[in-house]
Write a structure and sequence with these properties.
The structure is a homodimer. By secondary structure, chain A is of the alpha+beta class. In chain A, 33% of the residues lie in helices and 23% in strands. At the A-B interface, α8, β8, β9 and β10 of A face α8, β8, β9 and β10 of B.
């Protein structure tokens, strides 16, 4: 079996963590920020040095291609270089750098492939500066309208379209990844959770991305003075919200051990310590690979009483996502290579969304997960041990080679 | 018994609701805003027209004085003209306008007093633009340092001192209200709660201002990805906060029917729907006239378990306020006049703070409450029926006359 260079991979990781270094070990690298543009430029420089052909599409996605021996569709691997504020060095970046290291290995070890092999950098996976997340893969696969995305503004009022044009990475629509010119898409990513570490395994063989629902629950009461309104006359929207959160925590907690749900966002109006809260909105995000169990969460929300603690209660779907199942043949190849390389591994579903889940609608796709130390992600402490990064890259390399040989 | 003119009072209320009209019947009139300066100018214009002497002190407080027959200390009445954002036309303003109407009546009805009678406009009672509330009465009574207050900035970076100088209302320190030159301070105010309306009475004979405590409770967990972290591994700060709020609601609710407590402010970090909350801070404001019961609230907070739902729990006093008891002789005169005028009335403690509570530390002080329709305040719907405003002004007039005759 072929393997990539651990030293080269280590150097790549060290080189890219400088772009947007946030001070506590991680990075702040929103899409098209100076830091992200530096990372993109360094990526292109390294690709050119390896003799790859660099192209860009109309969303700023970068495609760096090593030619193949035959005139065949490309095998693509990639991820993203943008990050959330004070995020880590591995989310997205590791997928780009392991893909680059795979091609580096093909070049340096003179491994010829029949198919061209492409390293792809997806624009704006995080959606941290310009929501939504997975913006460009969403446009590529028809989930989002391109015009609507170009008009999205960041906090300073700049549109995505303006930032894209100013970036210097605007290319042509004809360069978009597509099912005619591409054979498969592979994305290595950190797990962003503790499952692999807890199981003591190095490789997650990703079967799909779990479905989710995201709702906003609203409680509406009556603002009034904190010092004068007797308790019995109050309609306190925060009290109602706290009761509903506690109640749902209990109820949803009984559905299934693998169901995860999060009340991550809350806002309270007027949010003044001397005024009884008038309106509270909070989010509920729930995920499970089994759509029936996600549906039970929705049922629990829809059966909330219309009134709690004197407040009107309503809920509204913000969005939902069906479970994505990756290409079974590709999943089997990943599993086979992890086994053949002697790496401990297990099947896993992804909780977070990834560009790969949209790509699967376009062409055969799968993912490879590597463990996150203590399950931490979207924070500066985010880390994956170098050895695990290297093992993941080796699985990726051999999967590309298998696809090259078998799926032609 | 003398009475004021209901028509003149109605005209005054109608005239002043124009300054800062917010569109839904109420006003937005932060201190030294163009709208508040217009209201101050109109107040001064009307005072000058009545032949009063207008003075200002070094905090922009206005003193409009009708001279007395003898060389005696002044009897002061007043309140404030500033408002919260989208507040009502009665909070503060009614106290100024009824005081003005009392003097108007003394002038028009040729009622001579032995003591000079002063209408006072207090600067920045609300603290909405420049915190804290009751800023100038706090400085007058040594609660706050003047230098510190002059340095307080509004959201746009302007200091209170700069706004004060620019206002044209900066006067001299020697004009401050003080216990040598003043005999008493009276403040008529809307109740800002539903107690008087519910009791079906027109006059609240205010015995004092209830004590309060204000705490910030903090729950600290661990931020992590909403899609990947199994429920059993979570330390969710919002879950902990919701449990504590629900628990305290039950526990504090059993202390006493007259205890009021409010969780009015909450902030959650990072407050992103896909991330488990790391830290939540929420406020608890609790008020009761009996300090022992306020202490029981503090005890409940201090005995919170150090850990809830895997999160560290801590609490910190933001501030507290002792119960203020108004001058018993003045309280008795208010009661006597309400009875003598045939107005239904009851004793009451104020939940909200007022400049009068600080003034009581300087000189004999009391307040007169009139009912708030549906207990609403700090909102545009805030209203007191004209008849109740008029009755309150009549109690105020006769109380001034009694003080003039009895307490010399």
């Amino acid at each position: 079996m072929h393997t990539v260079s651990k030293e080269r991979l280590e150097d790549k990781i060290a080189a890219f963590m400088k772009f947007g270094a946030a001070g506590q070990g991680g990075i702040t690298r929103p899409v098209f920020s100076p830091a992200e543009l530096e990372a993109r430029a360094e990526f292109q420089r390294r690709c050119t040095e390896l003799g790859l052909t660099v192209e860009r599409d109309d969303l700023g996605n970068i495609y760096a291609t090593k030619s193949g021996a035959e005139k065949l569709p490309r095998i693509a691997m990639g991820s993203h270089l943008d990050s959330v504020a004070c995020g880590g060095n591995y989310d997205g970046t590791l997928g780009v750098l392991t893909a680059l290291e795979v091609v580096d290995t093909l070049v340096k070890d003179n491994i010829a492939t029949r198919h061209p092999v492409t390293v792809m950098v997806c624009t704006n996976e995080e959606g941290a500066r310009f929501p939504p997340a997975m913006m460009s893969s969403g446009v590529l696969t028809g989930k989002f309208s391109k015009d609507a995305m170009l008009a999205v503004r960041d906090d300073s009022g700049v549109t995505f379209g303006e930032a894209l044009r100013a970036s210097g990475f605007l290319g042509e629509e004809k360069n978009r990844i597509n099912p005619v010119d591409y054979l498969a898409y592979l994305e290595l990513h950190i797990e962003q959770g503790p499952v692999l570490q807890d199981a003591g395994v190095s490789i997650g063989v990703v079967q799909g991305v779990v479905g989710m629902c995201n709702y906003t629950v609203t409680t509406r009461g009556q603002a009034n003075h904190a010092g004068t309104t007797p308790m019995k006359k109050r309609r306190d929207a925060l009290h109602a919200a706290a009761l509903i959160i506690c109640g749902l925590y209990e109820k949803l907690g009984r559905i299934d051990d693998n169901l995860v749900f999060t009340f991550g966002h809350i806002d309270c109006r007027p949010n003044i310590h001397t005024i009884i809260p008038e309106e509270v909105n909070f989010s509920l995000d729930a995920r499970h690979q089994d759509p029936i169990l996600v549906r039970r969460v929705v049922d629990a929300l829809e059966s909330l009483p219309a009134e709690t603690a004197g407040c009107q209660v309503s809920c509204k779907e913000a969005w939902s996502r069906k479970t994505t199942t990756f290409d079974p043949e590709l999943v089997a190849i990943v599993k086979k290579n992890a086994d053949a390389l002697g790496y401990s591994n297990r099947f896993i579903y992804s909780g977070p969304g990834h560009d790969a889940q949209y790509m699967q609608d376009l062409l055969p796709t799968t993912m490879i997960f590597v463990p996150s130390v203590n399950g931490m992600s979207h924070c500066e402490e985010e880390k994956t041990e170098l050895d695990d990064c290297w093992k993941g890259a080796n699985v990726l390399l051999n999967t590309v080679l298998d696809i090259d040989g078998r799926l032609a």
